[in-house]
Amino acid sequence: MKAEDVKKITVIGAGDMGHGIAEVALLAGYRVAMQDVEQRFVDRGLTRIKESLDKLVEKQKVTAENKNVMLGNIKTFVDIAEAVKDADLVIEAVPEIMGLKKKVFQALDSAAPKHAILASNTSNMSITEIASVTERPEHVVGMHFFNPAVLMKLVEVIKGDKTGEATVQLTYDLALKMNKVPVRIEKDSIGFAYNRINAPTQILLGLMVERGMANPEEIDAKMKKIGMPMGPYELMDYVGLDVAYHGARYFSDRLSRDYEPPGWLKGKIDAGELGKKTGRGIFDWSKGRPEIDLSKAKEDFDPTILIAIQVNEATKLLEEGVVKSAGEIDKAMASGGGSGFGPFQMARGIGYDRLAKICEDLAREFGVKVFEPTETLKKGNI
Questions:
Q1: Are 65 and 180 within one domain?
Q2: How many domains does the chain have?
Q3: Structure confidence by residue, pLDDT tens digits, 104-145
Q4: pLDDT per residue as tens digits for the range 365-382
């Protein structure tokens, strides 16, 4: 099967990511099925798609006629077997719980046509482990969209240990047809590229609050003053503190105990303060967006330390063969975030020796092994 043979895409899950991916597929001209475990979830997802398409019509990005055609191309289901029975590609977008994903993939393997590609939108979890419960591991792949899926360009295409090259290439080509920027992840590794590179900064941001070295508003005010549209703590709230917490737990279990989430973050989860989705998290979202007081910026905070940690982690991906080149990593990071620049592009302007020294100092100050500079970073031959 080639990209042009794909006519119907089924999305499993109608939540924030699921309905967003379904809309992306509609915009690319595919017939779409969207499934969730209860009718109310499916109905809510379809309503969100309609609202989003209405906004695109208002902005004259699609015509009213095209909108109606797209809405005619989507059908919703609660029964998973009915949703996938004639699908060419299935994209799973259920919560980040490995047991749940395995259960879903067993059902997909039983019900989907034998030629169908089974893709997971997981942001961190092992594609190899997910594929292990199927009879078609060569047809199981990671297809990680970013939130909001309609706007964000990056799609990570992740190769599991048994994923066939034809499956990877087909998924890559489909992402291009969806007007996305795909990046190949050649080795199944926790967090893939974008989230793996950002994960160590979450360690630092968590420790700074835990140790009383800074509060979130001080750091976010500083980052907004230097031109960032959203500070790192506001971004955590936006994505969901539960997502950050469970991601950190997964990294801690699978990669390093350094990633164990801080006590203050667990406290937020226990209190049900999950960020934007609940109206309160690190910040108050009751007015739509947090009100960050720029006068509270922590002026002695140097954002270069965040860049240093990211560049260091990016060199680990090169050493481990997760991504083939520094250029591909820069493409992923620039397309997945709001900066427009990748870590290695920024590193060349700062100097690898300076970044390595920062990482050495951070590792010593916080006692975090993840911060220790790699040989690649120290040598700077990238």
A1: yes
A2: 3
A3: 999 999 999 999 999 999 999 999 999 999 999 999 999 999
A4: 999 999 999 999 999 888
Which H or E element spans position 159?
A: none
* CATH, residue 347: 1.10.1040.10
Cα separation of 114 and 39, whole Å? 27
Please tell me whether residues 257 and 121 are part of one structural domain. Answer: no
pLDDT tens-digit profile of 194-245?
999 999 999 999 999 999 999 999 999 999 999 888 999 999 999 899 989 9
Residue 191 placed within a domain: no
State whether 309 and 286 are in the same domain. Answer: no
Q: Which residues of the chain have pLDDT under 70?
A: 338-339
Same domain? 123 vs 23:
yes
The answer on 15 and 133 residing in a single domain is yes
Of 144, 170, 185, the last residue of a domain is: 185
Name the nearest CA neighbour of 280 among 246, 251, 237: 237
- pLDDT of 341: 83
- Domain of residue 352 covers 304-379
| Distance (Å) of CA 38 to CA 15, 222, 230, 293 | 11, 43, 34, 42
Q: How far apart are CA 221 and CA 232, in angstroms?
A: 10
**How confident is the model at residue 227, as a pLDDT?**
87
Residues 309 and 292 in one domain: no
Q: Among 19, 139, 144, 246, which one carries the catalytic annotation?
A: 144
Q: In this structure, what CATH number is given to the domain that contains residue 151? A: 3.40.50.720
For residues 303 and 8, give the distance between their C-alpha atoms in angstroms, rounded to a whole number.
45
63 to 43, 73, 142: CA distances (angstroms): 23, 15, 32
For residue 148, say if its preceding peptide bond is cis, omega within 30 degrees of 0: yes
- pLDDT for the residue numbered 376: 96
Q: Which residues contact 355 (CB under 8 A, 6 or more apart)?
A: 304, 307, 308, 311, 312, 347, 373, 377
Distance between CA 325 and CA 32 in Å, rounded? 35
Closest residue by Cα to residue 331 from 156, 177, 124, 85: 156
Note if 115 is an active site residue. Answer: no
Structure tokens that stand for 283 in this block: 């910040």
- Looking at residue 374, what DSSP letter applies? P
